[in-house]
Amino acid sequence: MRLSLRKRAAFTLVELLVVIAIIGILVGLLLPAVQAAREAARRMQCSNNVRQIGLACHNYHSALRTFPPGRLVYNGWKSDGNPTKVVTGFLAMVLPYLEGSNLFNTYDQKFGFDDVINQPAVNVRVAAFRCPSSPADEVSPIYSGWNMGWTNDMNALTGLTGEVSDYQGVRGLHHLQGTPGSGQVHVWDGDCGILNESATRIGHITDGTSNTILLFENAGKPDHWRLGKKQPAVTHAQFYSHGPWAGNNGVGVYNWSEDGTVKGCDTCNRFINVDNELSPYSFHTGIVVIVLADGSTQTLSDSVDSQVFVNLCKKQDGNVVGEY
């Protein structure tokens, strides 16, 4: 009897390699789309965070007839009885308007954010103060220049820490004034921001609440980032003067050179996504999220004209902002 042999269907090596190559191409096409969708969701969450903080500032205004100061600094006492400067930031002040009453009650505002008695409170992570796109997920060393003599010495840090915030308020602005290349001068405007050390009311914002920045992203602390690249370990203590949510949340914003190596120079005309020390910085490609004084959220391109940014920071200069 003859047995008929039937051929088994099987992949050849070439066919298998083709299938693998096709799968690789499909994965390569799919991954960027997935990553883009995830970043879009993170950016939406970031916008929601700053909107919540902006609304909390408005609720604070409704209750107290003024926006919170970016920081309070006054003579007081340490919990050990020694005299000191007491420092509190605006994010700590608006906690009750962010469903954070328990944390607000835990944080003893008789003492500064840099007092050891407040370590349990200031090391609590507040989700609304963190951008989900920020790669940092750590606490920051606490720096308080009023009690450290404004030193840059890293050895002067006391070892106290605080959970960071990726959102800060405009307290002041360093910029160039005049026509580029002909008579530009350095200008420091310490009263331009809404969250400065004065009590700003809505009526003080004569440029209009929809034309004035309230908050901006300043993400990535406690790490140092410049132009999308993480920098070596920080070596100057003042880098940490902004960062902890309970601390000095009103930032004196600085202008930077194109390469980010110098701030406040004669040709420093960039503000956004250059350096996360003293200026708006985000991990959303090409933009930074802001909230305006009317509570609305916007994005600013990192290529926005520097004068437009300056006008947005000022609340009473009378300049027309225009398109951005």
Automatic annotation (TrEMBL):
Taxonomic lineage: Bacteria, Pseudomonadati, Planctomycetota, Planctomycetia, Pirellulales
SUPFAM superfamilies, per database record: Pili subunits
Protein name: DUF1559 domain-containing protein
Residue span(s) of domain DUF1559: 35-306
Highest taxon in the source lineage: Bacteria
